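Help needed: design a sequence for this.
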């Protein structure tokens, strides 16, 4: 079943009743300009088990401990946003699989050569997907990217990922002065938001597969709690890039993250991807990817299942 993404961008009270999420909207009083049905509908109930990602984007949201417990028990990722509406926090369950201890041990015991091979596969697929986006969206020359993808070695010692990224960002958006930088000019704001949603989806998938999202195969920043998520999301980033490109090309003002733009970016978990030759929603594909990653750690597989564009 495809899990849903719920976004809350206004004052709301979230509580639990009969194991269901109760969404209480602010009471409307003495306001005859609002439709009658809106005045009466101050409470909505949603099944907890249907949720995959919940985004909290308002300082006047109240959420009970019971709701958080129920969301985490159902392997839901909870994202909190700052005053600029940018995702700033991520809450995940401490355990998400019945054989947690065994899976942790296999992950911790993974050899360095295995990690380097897995990173080689990751970079290769990422560059291939970037090349596909560049060709489809901007009609750019991609022969060099194909060469770089084919020449990625174990562990990517030549850092072809960075070389491909520099070429990719230079040619994807036809915007004067644009460079990919978290604090840079728009549409960097859209990319940041989209990647944060993607990161939450991947981290959720890792926990569900019984893996520690902190221990990466390549990323190893001591201050990063989601190194493995940052590794595994790399081949999925081009899907976000493609969506952002479409938003930019639509002609709307993307200087600020409006509700409409955020609504489009929140469709990321349901984007259609192709994995193992079959079409699948992105969130479902991520679950296949993280499950295959565990099998690589356990010795059942030697290759991660990644989507191909």
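Sure. Designed sequence:
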């Amino acid at each position: 079943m495809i899990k849903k993404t719920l976004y809350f961008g206004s004052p709301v009270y979230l509580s639990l009743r009969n194991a269901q999420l109760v969404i209480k909207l602010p009471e409307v009083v003495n306001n005859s300009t609002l439709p009658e049905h809106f005045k009466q509908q101050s409470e909505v109930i949603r099944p907890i088990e249907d949720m995959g990602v919940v985004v909290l984007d308002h300082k006047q949201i109240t959420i009970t401990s019971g709701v958080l417990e129920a969301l985490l028990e159902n392997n839901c990722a909870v994202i909190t946003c700052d005053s600029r509406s940018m995702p700033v926090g991520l809450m995940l369950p401490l355990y998400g699989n019945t054989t947690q201890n065994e899976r942790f041990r296999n992950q911790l015991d993974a050899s360095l050569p295995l990690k380097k091979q897995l990173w080689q596969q990751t970079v290769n697929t990422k560059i291939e997907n970037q090349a596909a986006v560049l060709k489809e969206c901007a009609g750019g020359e991609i022969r060099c990217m194909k060469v770089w993808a084919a020449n990625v070695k174990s562990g990517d010692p030549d850092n072809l990922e960075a070389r491909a990224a520099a070429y990719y960002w230079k040619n994807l958006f036809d915007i004067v002065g644009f460079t990919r930088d978290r604090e840079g000019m728009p549409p960097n704001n859209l990319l940041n938001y989209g990647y944060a949603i993607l990161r939450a989806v991947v981290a959720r998938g890792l926990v569900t597969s019984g893996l520690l999202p902190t221990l990466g195969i390549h990323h190893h920043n001591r201050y990063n709690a989601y190194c493995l998520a940052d590794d595994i999301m790399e081949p999925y980033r081009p899907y976000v890039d493609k969506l952002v490109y479409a938003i930019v090309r639509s002609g709307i003002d993307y200087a600020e993250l409006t509700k409409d733009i955020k609504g489009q970016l929140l469709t990321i978990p349901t984007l259609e991807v192709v994995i193992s030759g079959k079409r699948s929603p992105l969130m479902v594909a991520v679950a296949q990817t993280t499950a295959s990653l565990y099998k690589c750690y356990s010795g059942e597989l030697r290759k991660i299942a990644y989507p191909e564009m």
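The chain has a mean pLDDT of 92.
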